[in-house]
């Protein structure tokens, strides 16, 4: 287990990103923000812009829509890191035809290996009706497995409900 | 924060309405039930009838499928109020082409402004796979934002799981 | 209430089965595994094979994709039982045209009646957007009602999040 790894899990619009940013911003700056979004359409570009606008000074943004483990490996030690989010990374990799099981395992090692606090954000997507299409089912399975692996390694796991954290594991960050 | 506001959040068929009614029914009657359902098809009409049948004497029902803030503003002080539910109201307003962000903010003020206990029921809808169609995504976003605003103002927030309340914020009502 | 009944509820790929198996495997063997899956396609057959491979010696497997209450009624007293899962059983019965409300009530009685520890696994499916098709909505409603009934009878209810149990009712098993 990696005590310095905090996992913030929740649904869409559950306040995951804002809560994760608040956790990191209580630590000494500068803070590293690793963004995994690909700005491939207007809807996504708008969300990225909103997230950037909410973050203020003190943040260093790095884009890693695909090589997230590599981006984590190249960080200076000691600095707090926010990874937002594992769901977009997984979606990018699945659509790129990657072996997401192997890459998920490598990513969890990279999250745990950073020498400093890491807060990782991810979506819970398995609490609705079984999706009609096979790709959505594959994504749901891969996301659930990745979430389990990260949660097993994290020192603290939070489940966000309507902007409020429920403590699933560890002590409040 | 409004200590007299209780927020009961959960999935479909999670026992939200029954639990919210039980909370209100522990207070002195008469109780005001604000219904937001539009009986626009047989499936909905059946659900409304089932909910009405479960409530007994002591309840005064008011219908407010659209002007929910207005209905809250016109209530006599001191009486316990159940609002069931914010999800149907939001759906009605979104389909009517309203500015749901502005109306959500006004609704939260109205919920907090009532001079007496208020229990508000809402659905969590963001824990499944991203919906295919854009309207469903807009609804999901608007619902998540409304839920966050209500939860931030509420003194008590409950997340219903299989008919059982999990305490997210505050003390058990 | 039946103190010997434990209910493990969660989303897809939330670690429900593994956690439920671990609870049962802390008790004295032999353990009875009641499987409800119908191996009606390759995807399901693969999942069944994976689940079987994870379980080791000490497990006696019985298949009950339809007559789950009957299978529970025919068990020798005292032996720990794992039922995995109620969701597949409900899906099988709904597709067979059964009266799932009546059968759900009978199933809950059978779960509570076994003379020995019972761990039942089920999916929460109501936390996404309302499904487009009527059958999926009927399933979602039936699943929610069944989950509420089981949770009301169980001595312990766990909600799985990313492989980790959140205690909803009772004491940790």
Automatic annotation (TrEMBL), chains A, B, C:
GTP binds at residues 10-17, 35-37, 52-55, 84. Keywords: ATP-binding, Cobalamin biosynthesis, GTP-binding, Kinase, Nucleotide-binding, Transferase. The keyword Cytoplasm does not apply. One of its GO terms (biological process) is cobalamin biosynthetic process. GO terms for molecular function: adenosylcobinamide kinase activity; ATP binding; cobinamide phosphate guanylyltransferase activity; GTP binding. Pfam families: CobU (PF02283). It catalyses: adenosylcob(III)inamide + GTP = adenosylcob(III)inamide phosphate + GDP + H(+); adenosylcob(III)inamide + ATP = adenosylcob(III)inamide phosphate + ADP + H(+); adenosylcob(III)inamide phosphate + GTP + H(+) = adenosylcob(III)inamide-GDP + diphosphate. Pathway: Cofactor biosynthesis; adenosylcobalamin biosynthesis; adenosylcobalamin from cob(II)yrinate a,c-diamide: step 5/7; Cofactor biosynthesis; adenosylcobalamin biosynthesis; adenosylcobalamin from cob(II)yrinate a,c-diamide: step 6/7. Its EC number is 2.7.1.156, 2.7.7.62. InterPro entries: CobU/CobP, P-loop_NTPase. It comes from the Bacteria. The active site is at residue 51. Gene3D superfamilies: P-loop containing nucleotide triphosphate hydrolases. NCBIfam families: PRK05800.1. Catalyzes ATP-dependent phosphorylation of adenosylcobinamide and addition of GMP to adenosylcobinamide phosphate. Belongs to the CobU/CobP family. This is Bifunctional adenosylcobalamin biosynthesis protein. It comes from Ancylobacter dichloromethanicus.
